[in-house]
UniProtKB/TrEMBL annotation:
This is GGDEF domain-containing protein. Keywords: Coiled coil, Membrane, Transmembrane, Transmembrane helix. The lineage of its organism: Bacteria, Bacillati, Bacillota, Clostridia, Lachnospirales. Residues 509-642 form the GGDEF domain. CDD domains: GGDEF. Residues 339-366 form a coiled coil. PROSITE patterns: GGDEF. It comes from the Bacteria.
Amino acid sequence: MTLRKSVILSLLAGTGLLTFIMAWVFNRFIYSSNAAAELKYLESSMEQIIHSVELNEKREADMYEMFEADYLNRANIAANLYSRGKSDGIDWNDMLNILEVEEVNIVDEYGTIVESSNPDSIGINFYEKEQFAEFLPLIEGRIGQESHIQMERLSDERGDRKIYVGVRRLDAPKGMIQLEVSSEALEQYESLVSLKNLLKSIPTERYRFLFALEQKTKKLLALSENNDLQTEYSLELILDMEEGEERTGTYIYDTTGKKWLAVLVCRKGIIYGYASDMAGLQGRVRESFIRGMASVLILSVFVLFFVYWLLGYTVLSDLETITQKMTRFINGAETVYFREGKNREIKELSQDLNKLVSVIETKQKRLCTLANMFDEGVAAYEYYADLNQIFCSDNLISLVGLSEEEVHQKIRSDYEKAKMKREVWEDGLYEEDRYQAQSGRTLMVHRTCFQNASYGFVQDITKDMKAIHKLHTKLSEEISRNITDSLTGLYNRKKLEEEVRQIFQEEKPQGMLILIDLDNFKRINDEAGHMEGDNVLKKFGRILNRQFRSTDIKVRLGGDEFVILLRQELSVEVLQKKLNQFLDEVRTELQKYYTDYKLSVSIGVASVSQDVRSYEDLYKNADAAMYVAKRSGKDRFYVNSDIPKKE
């Protein structure tokens, strides 16, 4: 066995033993550090979650005030509509559609319903109905009684739960206008601030889950969605926690034997928990361990190469000198001389290389002489892949408009691409390639490959391409006039319908339609004029172009209605972030109109699904979602694939 082999084997044995010891220590260290980091993350996340719960409780109180203000405003609108349309007759169906309520009643000064959208309600007397006693001061016109809302959701004669809103009539000193509201309207407001929806909206990794458990009833109130646990939680929870208590520890679920690292907080009779699967932690430890061991192995390889270099120093030093000079020559050095080595074989090799360099150096002169025989718009080059040598005519650099180094890099790249196109490399392969030079010229490259060498002629065809481009431009302008909106430059309805039809023709159609409406836009036209209204539409179109990708279809349907068509379905988190960014820019750019004309934006989103198979269905779903956003107070968006189609 040679000395070189003995040293290499000894080094391999020592490296293997050292690697084993380091692996054991490294694994223990990584596991403990990762467990501590995971616990710290759970604790800090729980603080943020409790803070979010507190904020949600405040929003819940504000939600009820917003609901009352909304429906008192609708009652006042009903009073105005009745006062103005009384002489011509009231279209009750139109009024119900505008107000989006169950019933509208006109009550006289004697407490009797004299007119109603429901004929069965005419004749009912409030003095005879104990449940309506709260409205008697309003009917009698007492001072300070302008309106009243009954939020107890009393049952009517049919057993349905209702909410009643009353305001003073405008056409009489006594009596009132009363609205009957379905309890579902309030439930829609309440769903926006429910604890269940709050926890669902918080993103978690699949190996973590977040839950809320009612301590008294042991009822699971809420559970994060993006994990494998759907109907049960995998912690043996400690239900005897006291108010405000926090606990941290490792728990084992008896059914599966899984270990969980969990942080628990008891607040107002509810136990909030954030847990992490210890198996997931072990997987991350394995990944870190593999990366660390890979680094050790790489270091060992470098050590082995270093020893190998030491053992062969007397030979490798001369070979390295030859390699370095050959590299310099390949990279463009004009003069290279290979020094004779320490032994006869290397000496003969150096002499042969010096002869080869002498022959190759004459290539450049021959190529320039050949190129000068052609027109000034033609240049030539030669590339020898084995030697990585490139020879160019003098005019190639100026024709392409790049530096010499960039020209050489492109020639090498084109050669490699041509070679990869063919499974079997063929001598005499010919290709043509059109290229837009940095100088602004359009060039045609004629290239042939032979025996691992590439020969090329570069021809300037700029004049020919300008004529072709002019014809294409005229054709594109003509097509654009038929599918774009003349005011905003966005696509029109025709383009939208074509794109949607293409989606539904695909084998697995997917996409999302975002319907946008400018609330109170008519006020701008009425008060500031149509020119100002057109300016707002143009600004809004520019905001759409900035906020959404060039591949998204941005459309103005007409008036103040716009559409964004996405050809793929986004996740809820990505879509919410995108729409919030969009609304923030709209509020900033159109702040003046928000203040002066109460302008706002309502957005509805619908997704392509098995139940949606046409443009009309997709639009109706988005329109229904948009009206939910309007009913929720406007200046917001609503995403719900379960919204029923609007008839």
